């Protein structure tokens, strides 16, 4: 989980984020901090990368 903008991470109920997954809420090259939404009852696979926004 991204620790640079933790209030921007929104995860729905009954969602599983598996080991090694990376969920981002920032884009340093563009100097952005964005809200990242993951719906309810989602399965995020191992070693996935969820981009900001």
Helix-strand layout with pairing:
Layout: E1 9-11, E2 16-17, E3 22-23, E4 26-27, E5 32-33, E6 36-38, E7 43-44, E8 49-50
Parallel strand pairs: 1-6, 2-7, 3-8
Antiparallel strand pairs: 4-5
Overview of this protein structure:
Strand 4 and strand 5 form a beta hairpin. The chain has one domain. 0% of the residues lie in helices and 34% in strands. It starts with 8 loop residues before the first strand and ends with a strand. The chain is built from no helices and eight strands. The protein has a two-stranded parallel ribbon. The protein has a two-stranded parallel sheet with strand order 2-7. It has a two-stranded parallel sheet with strand order 3-8. With 53 residues, it is mainly β. The model has no long low-confidence stretch (mean pLDDT 94).
Summarize it.
With 53 residues, the chain is an all-beta fold.
The average pLDDT value, as a whole number, equals 94
Radius of gyration: 11 Å
Give the N-to-C terminal Cα separation.
Answer: 14 Å
Percent range of helical residues: under 10%
Largest sheet: 2 strands, parallel
**Which class of secondary structure composition applies to the elements?**
mainly beta
Question: Low-confidence parts, pLDDT < 50 over ≥5 residues?
Answer: none
Strand count: 8
Q: What is the string of SSEs from the N terminus onward?
A: EEEEEEEE
- Give the domain tally: 1
Shape: globular
How many helical stretches? 0
The strand line-up of the biggest sheet is: 1-6
> In what range is the share of β-strand residues?
25-35%
Features:
two-stranded parallel ribbon, 53 residues, mainly beta, globular, 34% strand, single chain, two-stranded parallel sheet
């Amino acid at each position: 989980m991204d620790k640079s903008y933790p209030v921007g991470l929104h995860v729905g109920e009954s969602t599983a984020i598996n080991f090694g997954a990376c969920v981002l809420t920032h884009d340093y090259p563009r100097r952005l901090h964005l809200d990242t939404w993951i719906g309810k009852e989602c399965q995020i696979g191992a070693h996935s990368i969820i981009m900001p926004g």
